[in-house]
Amino acid sequence: MITATRLAHILSLGLLLAVAAHAGEIEEGVIASGTPFETRWRAYDSDVEGPTVLVIGGVHGNEPSGHRAARQIATWSVNRGRLVVLPAANPPALAARTRRIPGLDGDAGDLNRHFEVMDDEVRPTGPAAPAIWTFIESIKPDVILDLHEGYGFRAAGSKSVGTSIITHRKVDDPAQQLMLDAVNRGIENPERRFVDLNGIVKGSLARAAAVALGAEAHILETTWKDQPLSRRCRQHRRMVAARLVDLGMNVDSEPMVDMMVDPEDARPRIALFDGAGAGSASQGRRFEAQLPGCRVERLGPEDIQAGCLDAFDAVIFPGGSGSGQAEAIGVPGREKVRAFVDEGGGYIGVCAGSYLALDNYTWGLRLVPMDSHDRKHWRRGNASLKIELTAEGMETFLESEPMREIAFRQGPLMQPSDEPDNNAAVDVLAWFRTGVGRNGADPATMVDTPAIVRVEFGEGRVLLFSPHPELTDDMEDWLRLAFDWAVETKPVPAAAPSR
Ligand SMILES: [Zn+2]
Asked: Which is the most buried residue in 117, 123, 401, 426, by most CB within 10 A?
């Protein structure tokens, strides 16, 4: 809410442009309608004279950060010029997670070789490029930022163009340099720093735009190897934000870098932690697949420390290592997670994410008044175990029979806390009725201990699975049902959260 006094104050600070942004307009459209390449674009037109910047993602289907980051950038607004985003340029390849258009080999399948230039004219070929080129010509972009990923780190001597900015025209080198400076700030390891490359490959969209349209064009390459998706998306967002600020289209890059979801999006917004201690990318994809209809974004330690959780309804901390996740987000991140739940956010822990929420670790979030029991024998092994749902459990997961088998991967054994930080009553939703005990553990220790619990914490709600519903057949809807319970008390925000 901006009062007249506050408005006067903002104007006196010279932040008129930030306020004027609200006068802008969102436009949306579809290209290649009715074909397998049908895809949506979104534009934010500030209604103030200025440059048009086009951000493209998903030209190659096996480069998820380009697509994800563009989808996130599509939620941004600008206060000068026009920001146009095409997040999924190649839907069939994205669905198949392949570089090439499924069914087409070599350059015939590589969409980024389909924008040939002859005599300064672009002759788009193949099944997708003609519609994309017609769209680009209609947008008349001054700047094109095409988001891609490579398999290696260029600065470490890889042949891959991963972790670089590739620029075609010499005149655009200063813009390339300012994006490099922005993204390299905070990257300590010299082998992981972004480098400048010059001259874009023939047939590529960016080269065609530079040569035939006279546009400033860059390919922004992150690296998928050994880096979580959240970090790569943040790098993409940081490069694009830096360019927009330099073009005078926004005042400050940080609010853009931290913006990943549209606060007006009616879909449930779920943050899935993917930083250190969070297991593999395939685990993340499995969670997403079991949350249909939700906007799921991967968040890393930097996102959490920056307060990005506030735009979400709930956070999931998945399997992996509880201490590893705690160390990754650090004390500031743990305080952010606690505050998020305290203020009404939902928390869902699975295995390691449940350890993280317990009371008796120095690194624990202390959201749930339960201790981890028999800690010495945490390596008790993997097994399919019997659980018995309570009445509340059957109601939560819409089950008619109490006994189920569920995958167990060394999740926590829980018992009431000695010194609870949270005095709310814990509901047990299911009990372990069988146990496993390798590496010196006694299988009987875990029999009749809670397998799934839920509790309120401040204004928010917490639900912990010691075992893995997402790895168990016929439990594909349990995560979504857990989420439904966890966010029931949280009203959907009516406006953008204040920062
Ligand atoms: Zn690529």
From this structure: 426
Phi-psi region of 161 (alpha: psi -120 to 50; beta: other; left: phi over 0): alpha
Q: How confident is the model at residue 5 (pLDDT cuts 50, 70, 90)?
A: very low
pLDDT in tens, 75-101: 999 999 999 999 999 999 999 999 999
The CATH number that applies at residue 323 is 3.40.50.880
Question: Could you tell me the CATH number of the domain that includes residue 147?
Answer: 3.40.630.10
Phi-psi region of 339 (alpha: psi -120 to 50; beta: other; left: phi over 0): alpha
Stretch 185-212: mean pLDDT, rounded?
A: 96
Whether 143 and 41 map to the same domain: the answer is yes
pTM assigned to the model? 0.92
Q: Report if residue 142 sits inside a domain.
A: yes
pLDDT in tens, 287-322: 999 999 999 999 999 999 999 999 999 999 999 999
Task: Output the pLDDT for position 368.
Answer: 97
How far apart, in whole angstroms, are the C-alpha atoms of residue 350 and residue 452? 9
Number of domains in the chain: 2
Q: Hey, what are 497's tokens?
A: 């959260």
- Same structural domain for residues 328 and 433? yes
Question: In which domain, by residue range, is 311 found?
Answer: 269-486
Distance 99 CA to ligand 1 centre (A): 7
Contacts of 126 (CB under 8 A, 6+ apart): 101, 104, 108, 111, 114
d(CA 82, CA 117): 26
- Predicted confidence (pLDDT) at residue 360 exceeds the cutoff of 80: yes
pLDDT, one tens digit per residue, over 42-67 is 999 999 999 999 999 999 999 999 99
The CA distance from 47 to 51, in Å, is: 11
CA of 66 to the centre of ligand 1 (A): 8
Task: Please give the distance, rounded to the nearest whole angstrom, from the Cα atom of residue 106 to the centre of ligand 1.
Answer: 14
The reported pLDDT for the residue numbered 1 is 34
Q: Are residues 89 and 24 in the same domain?
A: yes
* CA 30 – ligand 1 centroid, Å: 22
Quote the pLDDT of residue 264.
82
pLDDT score of 77: 96
* Cβ atoms of residues 472 and 458 within 8 Å: no
Q: Which amino acid is at 149?
A: E
- Assign 396 a pLDDT band (cuts: 50, 70, 90): very high
**How far, in Å, is the centroid of ligand 1 from the Cα of 182?**
22
Residues 336 and 480 occupy one common structural domain:
yes
In a domain, 262, yes or no: no
Report CA(166)–ligand 1 centroid distance (Å).
12
Residue 222 CB neighbours (<10 A): 27
**163 lies in the same domain as 193:** yes
